[in-house]
Amino acid sequence: MSEAVTRPGITADALLASLDPLLRSWLPRQRWFAGKGRPITDFTVVSATELLPPTAELGLLHLLVQVRQPQVPGPGGGAPPPADCYQLLIGVRRELPPRLAPALIGHVAAGPLAGFTVYEALHDTRMSGFLLEALRIRARVGKLRFERAAGKTIGDDLAPRLLASEQSNSSLVYGETFILKLFRRIVPGVNPDLELPLELAREGCTQVPAPAAWFLADIGDEVNVLGVLQPYLKGTADGWELALRELADGRDFSGEARSLGRTTAEVHLALARALPTVTLGHAQVEVLAQGMAERLEAAADAVPALLPYAPALHTTFEALADLGQKGPGWTAQRVHGDLHLGQCLRSPAGEWSVIDFEGEPSRPLAERRMPQPPVRDVAGMLRSFDYAARSREPWATGWAGDCRAAYCTGYAEVAGRDPRMDPVLLRAYETDKAVYEVLYEARHRPDWLPVPLSAVKRLATNGPATEAH
To answer: Percent of the chain at pLDDT above 90?
Structure first.
C-alpha cells in the first residue's frame, strides 16, 4: 500500500509516475542495483516520505520502491525470488549547481514535479547532513523512525562525505567520527547488520563496532532496517588491501592471519554467548548437504566449465550427509555469514575488527539469520586468502597455504578447537563457497573465473582443505 507524501495534493503514486521514466534509465546504472541485464517492467511505491519541509526550490524525498523485472528461476529451478525493494533518497531542486552534476537523475517533464531537477541526494552535504541530524534528535517522519543508542552522543557539526567504493550499499562518513551505512535493497525483517552488532555490544565484544544509531521504516506489521550509524575506525587498513600490499612487497602475512583467526574465534564465542545455539541433527545435516548439492547443480548448468568437476564435488556433499547420519552432529550458532578479508579492518596498533554482518545479500533474510556451524565463516576466510594469492602472477600458493594454516591455528588458540579437526565439514563449506564464486565470476568478472576454478579443481581431486595448490 502506498503511503502519502507530505507535499499537499501529491500522492505517492502520482509522484512515482512523475519519476518513472527517469528511474528506468538511472537505476540500472547504479552499482548497487542487483537487476542489471533485465528490463524494468513496473514500479510500486512501498513508502514515500518528504523529509524536508516542502519549499518552492528544495526538497528531499525518501522512497521505498519495489522494482519488477522479468524473473529468473531460483536455485535448483525453484520459484523465482520476489521483486526487489530499493531505498532511494532523491533531492529536488529547480536548478542543479555544477558541483552536483554527477548526481543528476534527470529533469522531470510531467506530473507533480514537472519543471524540477531530481538527483541522488547523498551527494548533497545539506541532504546527508539532515540524516545525521534526524538520528541525533531521534526524529519521527511519517513511517520513518530514527533511533539512537542509549548514552551515545552525536555532534551537530560533523561534515559528511559520500564514500565512492561501495558495492551493494551506500555509506556516508561524518567528520571522521561516524559512518552511516544505508542499505539499498530492503528486505522486511531484522537485518543482521544491526541485530548482531547490537548483541555483541551487549556482550562487551570490542572486535565489532557498536551501533550508535539506526533508522527504520514501519510498513504494515513489518520493520524495515534502512541504515546503521557506527563509529568510523579512522586509520584502519582494509584486510584485503593490506594483504595485497604485503604480498606485493614479498612480506609474510601469516602473523596477521593468525591474529585474524583469534579475532574471528573471539567474535564467534561472543555470538554463542549472546544468542541461542543448536545441535544439528541428522535431518538438519542432510538438508544442509542437499542445499549445497542443489547449488552445485544450478551453477554447473549455468557455467559449463564446472561440469567436469561436478561428480567429484558431489562426493564431498555426500560425505557430509553420511557423516551426519553417524555422528552426534555439529553445534550451530549465529555467524558472520560472509566473512572475508574485505570485511576486516586492522588498526595501526595491529588489532583486528570485523564489520558488515549483513551476510550474502542474495540469500533470503531468514536463511541469513539461521544458526550455522562457525566453520562456514572459517571457510570463507580460507577462500579469501586463496583469492589474494591468486590476484597476481605468479600465483603465490605457498603464501596462501601459510596464511590458511596460521589462521586456523590462531582460531584454535581462542576457540579451543581447530577447524581442521572437522575436515569433512570444512571441505564441504569451502567447496560450496568455491562453487558460488565460480557462478559469481562467470556472471560479473569473467577474467577472474580461473581463481575459483583452480580451487574447484583442487577440491575435486581431494587436495587438503587447508592448503592452496
So the answer is: 79
The DSSP code sequence of 410-446 is HHHHHHSS-GGG-HHHHHHHHHHHHHHHHHHHHHH-G
**Which are the contacts of 101, defined by CB distance < 8 A and separation ≥ 6?**
none
Residue 294's contacts (CB-CB under 8 Å, 6 or more residues apart) are 75, 76
Percentage with pLDDT > 70 across the chain: 93
DSSP code at position 330:
-
**What is the tens place of the pLDDT at every residue in 241-257?**
999 999 999 999 999 99
Return left, alpha or beta for 76; rule: phi > 0 is left, psi -120 to 50 is alpha, else beta: left
Q: What is the pLDDT of residue 166?
A: 62
Can you give the pTM of this predicted structure?
Answer: 0.91
Q: Please, which residues have CB within 8 angstroms of residue 64's CB and are 6 or more apart in sequence?
A: 45, 46, 47, 48, 85, 86, 87, 88, 186, 217, 219, 224
Q: Are 340 and 382 in contact (CB under 8 A)?
A: no
Summary mean pLDDT of the chain: 91
- Residue 392: pLDDT band (50, 70, 90) is confident
Question: Phi and psi (nearest 5°) for 445?
Answer: -140, 75
* Domains of the chain by start residue, with CATH: 1-123 (no CATH), 124-232 (3.30.200), 237-460 (3.90.1200.10)
Direct distance between the N- and C-terminal alpha carbons of the chain, in angstroms, rounded to an integer? 55
SS3 content of the chain, % helix, strand, coil (to 5): 45, 20, 35
